Amino acid sequence: MDKINIQVEGKSVLVLGGGISGKSAIGLLKKLKSSRVILYDKVYQDGNFDEFFSDSSGLGKAGKADLIIKSPGISPDHPILEEAKFLRIPIYSEIDLAYSFFKGKIVGITGTDGKSTTTALTGFLIQKMCPNSKAGGNLGIPFSDFCLENLDYAILELSSYQLEDSEFFQTSVSSLLNIAPDHLERHKTIDNYLEAKMRIIKNSDKNHRFIVNQKLQNQIKTYLNGYKGQVLYFGSSKNSDAYINFENSSIQTKNFYYSYKDFKLVGNHNVENLAASLLICENCLCEPALLQKSIPEFKGLEHRFQYVDTIQNLTFINDSKSTNIHSLVAGLSYLKKGKKVVLIIGGKAKGKDLEPFMIATQHLDLYVYLIGEAIGLWEGDLRSHFKERLIVRKDLKEVFRNLPEIIEKIDPSFVIFSPGCASFDQYKNFEERGTHFIELVEELKLKTL
C-alpha cells in the first residue's frame, strides 16, 4: 500500500480528546503549521490550541474543521464524529497522523497483557544494535511526539482503541502477544476485540513479519486471509519459530539458542514476552549474540510484578498493572506449589468470571484480601472457594492495618498486590495505585524495624 500523507499545513484541524494522545497531536499539528487547531474535550485542558469547546457547545463545530484527529479514548459513535461523517470531513487517528510523517521502520506490539513490558524490552534490545531508535505509543510517549525525528525504528505499544481507529498505519514487524476478554464495554464482544487487534496487519506487504503466540494459532486463522507476509510463532511447542523450553530456561530460534537463566523478570508470561521480543529483534536484523548478552541487563517496568522489598524473609511484589483476570493469572504462574502467599486483589472489576483464577491458584497455599468495588461482584464466589481464607477490606490502607496479624498467623513467603481489576474506583490510574502500595510497604517496614 502506498503511503498516504495527511495534508495539515494551512488547514483547520479539530482534535477530539485532550488526553496524552490529543495533546501530542496538537503539538505535531503546530510544528506542521496547521492554520488553526481546535480542541474538544469534556473538561477544559491547557494547551497550545486556538479554540476549545466541550460537550455543552460541541455540535455544529465539526463544520469549522478541514479534518479531524480522533484520540483513542473517544467513542467511535460520538455525536461529533457522526456529524463529521455526514459532512464528509476526513477523520484520522493520532497514529495515522504520526505515521504519515515518519520515515523509519515501525515495530508494532499489541495483545491484552504484557504490551508495555514487551515494547520496553524490544526497544531496549533494538537500541543496543540501533541506538537511533525509540519506544513509545501507548507505553507513555505518543508516536506524534517523535514521528518527525529521523529514527531507524519506532517500537510502538498499540492498544485496541488505537488500532480500531487506524486506516493506513503500517508496520514492518508486528506482534500479537495474547488475547483475553478486555475492554468489552467498548468492543462488546471478544470477536470484535480480536478484530481490532488484528488491524495491526491490515496494510501489511509481503515483507511483513507477524510474531504471534502459538496458543492463538487457531483463533487468528480467519483473520489471516489475504495476509501476504510471514507468520512466526513463539511458544512451548517444539515446532514454534521461537521454542521455549521452561525446563532448561532456554529459547531456541532457527538462528540461535538463547539462555534466559539470568533474565530478571519472573513468570512464564514474561518468558513468552521475551521470546516474542527476540523474534521481533531477529527480524529487525539484530545480532543474536548481542541479544543474548543484553537479556540480563533489562530490569523491567514499574508496577509489573515489581519487586518492592523483603521484610523479615517476606517478599512484597507490586503488580498494580494487573487490571484483568488474565493478567492476574499470568502473574501468579511462576509461584511454586506449597508456597504460602498473601494475595491482594480487587478494584473496579471488568467481569464476574473467576474460574480461571480459581483453577490457577489450586496449587497455592493462599490467603486472599478483596478490596474495592469488586467486593460486591466477587465476594460470594470467592467466599465459596476460599472460605475463611478470604478477608474483605475496604481498601489497601485497611489491608495493611490487618496484615501483621495474618503474617504472624501463617508466616507467608510473599505478599503480592495483583488486583486483576481497573483502578478507577479509588485511584486515578494503576501507577498511583502501585505507588500507594509501595508507600504502605515502606511504612510497614519502619514499624517492623
Structure description:
The chain is an alpha/beta fold and 449 residues long. It folds into three domains: 12-89, 3-Layer(aba) Sandwich (Rossmann fold); 97-297, UDP-N-acetylmuramoyl-L-alanine:D-glutamate ligase; 306-448, Protein-Tyrosine Phosphatase, Chain A (Alpha-Beta Complex), CATH 3.90.190.20. 33% of the residues lie in helices and 21% in strands. The chain has 15 helices and 20 strands. It has helices at 20-31, 79-86, 94-99, 115-129, 143-146, 160-165, 184-187, 190-197, 268-282, 288-294, 325-332, 355-360, 374-386, 396-410, 430-448, and strands spanning 12-16, 36-40, 51-53, 67-70, 91-93, 105-110, 133-137, 153-157, 173-176, 209-213, 230-235, 242-245, 250-252, 257-259, 306-311, 314-318, 340-346, 365-371, 390-392, 414-417. The strands form three sheets. A nine-stranded mixed β-sheet has the order 7-8-6-9-10-11-12-13-14, covered by helices on one side. A six-stranded mixed β-sheet has the order 15-16-20-17-18-19, sandwiched between helices. Strands 3-2-1-4-5 form a five-stranded parallel β-sheet, with helices on both faces. Helix 4 runs parallel beside helix 9 (268-282). It is globular and about 70 Å long. The termini are far apart.
Mean pLDDT reading: 93
Please tell me what the overall shape is.
globular
Radius of gyration: 23 Å
| CATH architecture call of the largest domain | 3-Layer(aba) Sandwich
Topology-level CATH name of the largest domain: UDP-N-acetylmuramoyl-L-alanine:D-glutamate ligase
What's the end-to-end separation, in Å? 64 Å
* Tally of DSSP helical segments: 15
- Tell me how many strands there are: 20
Write the CATH homologous superfamily of the largest domain: Mur-like, catalytic domain
Low-confidence stretches: none
The portion of residues forming beta strands comes to 15-25%
Total separate domains = 3
Instruction: Briefly note the structural class of the backbone.
Output: alpha/beta
Major sheet description: 9 strands, mixed
